[in-house]
Amino acid sequence: MKKLILLSLSLFFYLNLQAQPGWTVGDFHQHTTFTDGSYSIFHMMTKNAEFGLDWWANSEHGGAFKMNGLYSGIDLFGGFDSTGKVLPVITYWDSHSPTKLIGDGTSGKNPKMWRWQSIRDFSYAAVQLTRKIYPNKIVLQGVEWNVPGHEHCSVFILGDQFKQNDNANAVAQFEYLFDGSDKDTTGGQSQGWQDKNHVNNHQKAVEAIAWLQQNHRNTSWAIIAHPERKLPGKGGYTIADLRDFNNAGPDVAFGFESVPGHQKEKYRGSYSNTSAGGGTYGGAGIYSAKVGGLWDAMLSEGRKYWLFSNSDCHNTTDEGGDFYPGEYQKTYVYVSDKKNPQAIIDGARSGNVWVVSGDLIDSLHFFVENATMGETLVTDKKSVNITIRFHVPSKPNHNVWSSYNRPEVNNVVLIAGKVGNKIDPSSPLYNVDTVATTRIIARFDANGGITDSKGITSKKWSDIGNGWKEMTINVSVDNHMYFRLRGSNFGLNVPNQTDGQGNPLSDTLEGYGKNTAAKSFDDLWFYSNPIFVKSNAATSIENSSEQNIRIYPNPANKYFVVECEEASTIQIFDNNGKIVYFDKASNSNNRISTENLPRGVYYVKITNNSNVTTKQIVIE
């Protein structure tokens, strides 16, 4: 018996020490009474676990706030008012002793504490306790960054979190240095942090991204929140802004939450008519909902820029409230180890991610040959096989506002786009947020035979049992491309919902400012991230001609040669869009040394009076 017990214990510890790869469900940011949320942090932590999340980040606004989120909230009993309504508990920092507020501007009655301090000393303490309460969950301390010159961004830095003497000082330092609402000028210096740039503009935002890239390259993210939204006094985001961020920090600024939170609010997604697109489209912002829109324009440069979702939960009152994290929206991230917080970061950065609303599906497999989401398939074939599988949930979703709690997928569309080179920041195309080469190329449904307004006839998917549906298709490959998926419970030409290709229409057609929880649960979608496909002839040209140009050898080692018939200029850009070489070219062979260039992918731009040609080269 003792041997059997010892063997069982050994097996238990062995299995728990091994990496556990697989899909995880998470949420990037939500709010408590530490900032402008309505619930205590422990209530929100409980709801994250209740609605099935595997990981979540407590990422609330930067700036300064009055309440102690440990002891404040409508979830706590604070007595009754004259009408018998339960009052929330409000605990100010100066009523909870001892609490020493650090930094300037922290005096007077009910003073505000700078967010960097509440993250460091109080919020993170709650996160540490939550990890003990839910040992099988990964709980992260982040911040919802008030981006200088812009709206918001979910930021997380692993730093010393999860170490033996763990802390969230890296997140606190970032908030102090770069948050547009943090006006503290002395508190951070007392922690030994460098002085900060007090200019509140786009340049400072780019500086912050570059700081993350330099100091926390593989251990942080900066994921733009509700990118289409623009509130009074806050700038929104253009494609040039997002390109700037991605150029400054490709390993940290790798995506956006264009399927925003606030899906229960009367203005769905909290997107008013001032937002880009004038509102949401099937719950998604116009940047991701529009085929050939901003997201596709980013992908068409070959940028590894991914789509995410979040709850952005502040409160869940019936009118104008939010859904709890995981209650309506989910972001699925494939990780190498479900127990490792670093794997969450790596998984998000990899792009092997998909998002869904209302649990329309609960599993998605998407492959081009053997490559999956976020990956690049390199092939010599003229066509590739694409396989799609999704799983229908075996139980109702969380809709308690209507009887529609077992939604069914009506159709899945395959979207394809061509990939060119990164656009030079000096080019007028840098500000263009549409692309004409992305389109829907196939549609699948339960029966097949339905033709859309562009003449595409749907193909029937296969029911392979146990709730799984499967689709396969062989498609031609045109040099460098990407493929992505979108699915919905709505078909074609549904009044106020979809057009003749099944694209989502503006949610304002259901009544501007009249969204409800039931309406959101009636209108459900899922989106995959893309798979790139690339031929071995790695040449991509946009708005240009070949000009009889040759570049060899490719890959290059110590040098490469550019052959061109006409006198030209030659520019070389690195993978971040930075110019690393510029010179005039002769009309014959131009030998360029690569000995001072780090290994990697570069773009060679050859210009004469009438033509521009861009070619890719690999330096080994």
Work out the number of β strands: 30
CATH architecture of the domain at 23-226 and 310-357: Alpha-Beta Barrel
Per CATH, what is the topology of the domain at 23-226 and 310-357?
Answer: TIM Barrel
Q: How would you classify the quaternary structure?
A: single chain
Calculate Rg over CA atoms. 26 Å
Distance between the termini: 60 Å
Q: Which structural class do the helices and strands define?
A: alpha+beta
CATH class of the domain at 23-226 and 310-357: Alpha Beta
In percent terms, what proportion of residues is strand? 25-35%
Number of helices: 10
Largest sheet at a glance?
16 strands, mixed
User: Which residues form runs of ≥5 with pLDDT under 50?
Assistant: 11-15, 537-547
Mean model confidence by pLDDT: 90
State the shape: globular
Helix content: 10-25%
Give a description of the structure.
The protein is α+β, with helices and mostly antiparallel strands and 620 residues long. Among the domains are: 23-226 and 310-357, TIM Barrel; 550-619, Immunoglobulin-like. It has helices at 2-17, 41-50, 115-133, 169-178, 202-215, 239-248, 286-289, 294-299, 341-350, 517-522; strands at 22-27, 55-58, 64-65, 113-114, 138-146, 152-157, 220-225, 255-259, 306-309, 329-335, 353-357, 363-368, 371-372, 376-379, 383-391, 411-418, 439-445, 459-460, 462-465, 468-476, 480-488, 525-528, 531-535, 550-552, 559-563, 568-573, 579-585, 589-593, 600-607, 612-619. It has a 16-stranded mixed beta sheet that branches. Strands 13-12-15-20-19 form a 5-stranded antiparallel beta sheet, with no helix packed on it. Helix 3 (115-133) packs antiparallel against helix 4 (169-178) and helix 5 (202-215) runs parallel beside helix 6 (239-248). The radius of gyration is 26 Å and the shape is globular.
